[in-house]
Amino acid sequence: MDLGSFTSGLLTGLREGVEAALIVSIVMAYLVRSGRGDQVGRIWVGTGLAILLSLVVGVVLFVSVGSFREPYEQIFEGTTLLVAAAVVTWMLFWMRRQASSVKGQLQAAVDRVVASGASWGLALLAFTAVIREGLETSLFLVGQATSNRLEAAWVLVGALAGLLIAAGLGYGFYRGSRRLNLGSFFRWTGIVLVFIAAGLISKGLHEFLEIGALGSGPWTATVFDISGVLSQDEGIGAFLRALFGYSASPELLTLTAHVTYVVAILALYLRPVRRPVPPSPTAAIVRP
Description:
By secondary structure, the protein is an all-alpha fold.
């Protein structure tokens, strides 16, 4: 068992799965509490279709990577890794901004769909809400799996375990559980995903350096080689490589990109979220 690949997949599946489960549970709970429990089945239809499509997209992407020959395989892998890192970065900041208003937006959307009389509108609502999370998860997992194809199975197993845990948490949300502090959960898993995304960036750039697509120069030189101290192919080094993209002998470009991304994104991600300031009561007074 590759613990690093398993953990990487687990964290991704858990984080993205909790977001999707939270969305579904909010919609279902609102329907039940507003006397529309007979519409819950349509939510399951939309959710199931979104999961199925996400799975198909992930399988197609992963199989496509393996069918290419050099240098196209490296180009496709490098591009996939960089796109996956970009998607997860966008997702982190989107959730950071929207976390406090997601519930109200979903409930308003449910009201609009029901009021319009579109019987399958709720299925479409669930589909569109979940498909974004599903496609992000598929792309991110494909990026992790293609970076180490020999351990791709453990990435998938970890992701499935994370999704199962997320489903259990989603049921807890539906039943009204408040034991999990969602703010802390998303904050800490987001921090871990920043380091995972940095690893995807460095691996993606390494693929392009390997085929000479980025030219030759000082940026291609190996900064250091500590393989004799902490090998990336076994033990703790292999775990760190699978989880965070550790390299025992990084090139200047990949190391610089890795460190720069972590520092810059963490600084932005951890800064306080600005909340809208409510208008002062005196501002509402109309002067004659």
